[in-house]
Amino acid sequence: MPENRYEPVGRSATPTPAPRPGQEHFTAPADEGGLGAVDAVATDETPTSLWRDAWHQMRRRPLFWVSGTVIVIVVLVAAFPGLFTSIDPRACDLARALEGPQAGHPFGFDRQGCDIYSRTMYGARASVVVGVLATSMVVILGTTIGAIAGYYGKWFDTILSRITDIFFAIPLVLGAIVIMSIATNRTSFLVAFVLAVFGWTQIARITRGTVLSVKNNEFVTAAKSLGMGRGQILVRHVLPNSAAPIIVYATVALGQFIVAEATLSFLGIGLPPDVVSWGGDISAAQGAIRTDPEILLYPAGGLAVTVLGFMMMGDVVRDALDPKARKR
Amino acid sequence: MLWYLGRRLLQVIPVFLGATLLLYALVFLRPGDPIAGLGGERGLPEAVQEQIRAQYNLDQPFIIQYLLFLRGVVTLDFGVDFRGREITEVIANAFPVTIQLALMALVIEAVFGIGFGLVAGMRKGGIFDATALVVSLFFIAVPTFVVGFVMQIVVGVRLGWLPVTAGRDPDFVSLLMPAMVLAAVSFAYVLRLTRTSVAENLSADYVRTARARGLRRSQVTGRHVLRNSLIPVVTFLGADIGALMSGAIITEGIFNINGVGGTLYDAIIRGESITVVSLTTVLVLVYIGANLLVDLLYAALDPRIRYA
């Protein structure tokens, strides 16, 4: 039996490694593929992950910088309202009620004689806190339930999907109104919690769907064959690869939760009156709507700009993370 | 298809039971005694309170109360509320105007959303597209009640084109403004959905083929692009019927309409648990029914989807 049955033509000069005992099949000549060159090319460029790619894509969009600036400003105002106004939003003088804009009071006064500019600045906190809290809760709850249902399947999926259906059948504002009307101690945390209880279903469905499609990928099979545990694979491989649609939905949901909080406060069952909030101020302005409609516009404007900022950011992130949309 | 319909109907039952049980528990486990407050300042004698409790099954354990309520739902007899009105009658009074409002809103958002979305999608990246996107984002960002107030001031008071509020027994014209306000948010979503869908379908192979066959532009747009783009839009519109009916709580409040929203809100504030649960149950039923309808429509609209 010859040592190497498939001697490549024209490369006879190349020395072939001696086969080890039992290695009877074809062995490639050492320099055949030029694999070293391929490696050199690959290490020359920075590896482009989905996230790095998306970041490059987003950086070039003016909309990203506009919405990013709006979000940064709103968060700054929410965190340190005292930096933007030196007037106490709760120090009101009924004698100055409904006075127009003047020096030091650019937006004028509302029906209670409170400074509208100051109240608009301080109102940001309630909206941002409720929005961020509710979104965090929804992301944690929705991803956990959706991931378990999608990844473990079988009766986990059956039970969790039915529970999702049940909560999905109750509209967000309707469910929130029913609970909030019962609540005795209304805080930002409670409002966020109630919104999260009826708002997590969409994210659970999205997560379940993406986990279902991700878990059949080669890298999951590879991790499995390397002996990784199921839980470990879920956390280390499946979830990071399902994150894109969850992040996109979360930015949009943040805006929706801010609107929902304002709606509840507007109905008088959201945040208590002593908390300065845009929803509450809009509700208070309602009484003077025929005579002084402009006092409504400041809290409503703050609300709109904030929600618009988050929604636009969601648009930009979606475009950047979705290669299908990027192509065109 | 029949097999699918049957299986889908069976799936609705546990969802309905779960959702109503959840709402029932939320409403009936609330602190405070609705009966004790009925007599006003002087209060009711203990014996009368006991009798009323027995009449409304409030002396029974929670799960029995829920089962008795379910029997009422199935037999379409919800009992009477604390003021002695038949709840079936309350529902019959409240729903027609809300249904009319929701349907009007649905037509408005479908016509304008699909129309503008089609134009924006055909010229993606153009000036109309950019404007439509910003305007739709604006509608999503501004809460319904602010849109309502602004419309009331501008269209109702300043311009005087439409009645400011609707009031009792509203006619078509006075419901026009509430319907537009109710449709505002969904209009924005329909527009964006149509735009994305149209833009995506424009580069599809069958559209290129249709153009290559020499069909007129209007034929390509109407028959090939629009029809295929409408599948996700119709899905959204179907599911939106339920959302519009419960979203009417805010709109009806602003425009003083005596529909489901107004009745429900009054009942929640006054703690009339039975009315609250009955109305929300009907709303949940509408919501579930609309979603079921959408699933079936899907199969009819998209021949690629087959239900085994």
Describe the protein in words.
The complex is a heterodimer of chains A (328) and B (308). By secondary structure, chain A is an all-alpha fold. Chain A contains 13 helices and no strands. In chain A, helix 4 runs antiparallel to helix 5 (154-168) and helix 6 (172-182) runs antiparallel to helix 7 (188-199). The model of chain A has no long low-confidence stretch (mean pLDDT 80). Chain B is mainly α. Chain A binds chain B through residues 162-163, 165-167, 169-171, 173-175, 177-179, 181-182, 184, 255, 259, 262-263, 266-267, 279, 282, 286, 289-290, 293, 296, 300, 303-305, 307-308, 311-312, 315, 328, and chain B through 11, 14-16, 18-19, 22-23, 26-27, 30-31, 124, 137-138, 140-146, 149, 152-153, 157, 199, 203, 242-243, 246-247, 249-250, 253, 265, 268-269, 276, 280, 283-284, 287-288, 291. Chain B: This is ABC transporter permease.
Into which percentage range does the β-strand content of chain A fall?
under 5%
Number of strands of chain B: 0
CATH topology of chain A: MetI-like fold
Low-pLDDT regions of chain A: none
The geometry of chain A reads as: elongated
Question: Could you give a short description of this structure?
Answer:
Chain A is elongated, with a radius of gyration of 29 Å. Chain A contains 13 helices and no strands.
Output the keywords.
heterodimer; A: 328 residues; mainly alpha; MetI-like fold; 13 helices; B: 308 residues; 0% strand; flat; transmembrane (chain B); transport (chain B); membrane (chain B); BPD_transp_1_N (chain B)
Q: What's the topology here?
A:
The complex is a heterodimer of chains A (328) and B (308).
Chain A: H1 35-44, H2 50-59, H3 62-79, H4 116-152, H5 154-168, H6 172-182, H7 188-199, H8 201-214, H9 218-225, H10 230-267, H11 278-285, H12 294-321, H13 323-327
Chain B: H1 2-28, H2 46-55, H3 62-74, H4 87-122, H5 127-141, H6 144-158, H7 172-202, H8 205-212, H9 217-255, H10 260-270, H11 273-301
Helix pairs in contact in B: 1-11, 4-5, 4-7, 4-9, 4-10, 5-7, 6-7, 6-9, 7-9, 8-9, 9-10, 9-11, 10-11
